[in-house]
Design goal:
Elements: H1 4-21, H2 24-29, E1 31-39, E2 48-51, H3 52-65, E3 72-81, E4 84-94, E5 100-101, E6 104-112, E7 115-123, H4 125-133
Parallel strand pairs: 1-7
Antiparallel strand pairs: 1-2, 3-4, 4-5, 4-6, 6-7
């Protein structure tokens, strides 16, 4: 079965695959009931801490703005220790407004009992704002 760290890296990899598919219920099903998602910066409607329900609402809004209904996440490099998994990640999505969302992230996931219990998302906030928020 491998070490706890290997299992947790696999859980995060599977979560990113699920996330990339855009099925909000399936994404939320991969998270603990008390899960939180925090996004760096001060982007209106995106930054700050959201509970599971709030994160689901945000996902729905993002999906509506993309041509495929999802943002594809590609993990590039992992570092794991105990329940924490840090992942350098790249995203890609084409938006209905004609813009392309292609960001780089550093995520810190906490995995509990095979589910995601918290996420900290560090990203290029200027790029996110330019693609999703700017007129």
């Amino acid at each position: 079965m491998g070490t706890l760290e290997e299992q947790n890296k696999q859980t995060v990899t599977e979560f990113m695959t699920t996330f990339s598919g855009g099925d909000v219920d399936k994404i939320l099903g991969s998270m603990t009931d008390d899960a939180t998602w925090w996004v760096a910066g001060s982007i209106p409607g995106i930054s700050g801490t959201k509970d599971k329900a709030g994160f689901g609402e945000m996902l729905g809004g993002i999906a509506e703005n993309t041509t495929t209904g999802a943002i594809r996440l590609t993990p590039l490099a992992f570092t794991a220790e105990g329940e924490r998994v840090a992942v350098e990640t790249e995203s890609y999505a084409e938006l209905k407004n004609g813009r392309v969302y292609n960001n780089l992230y550093h995520f810190v996931f906490t995995v509990r009992d095979g589910k995601i219990s918290s996420v900290k998302e560090f990203l290029d906030t200027e790029h996110t704002t330019a693609v999703f928020v700017a007129p």
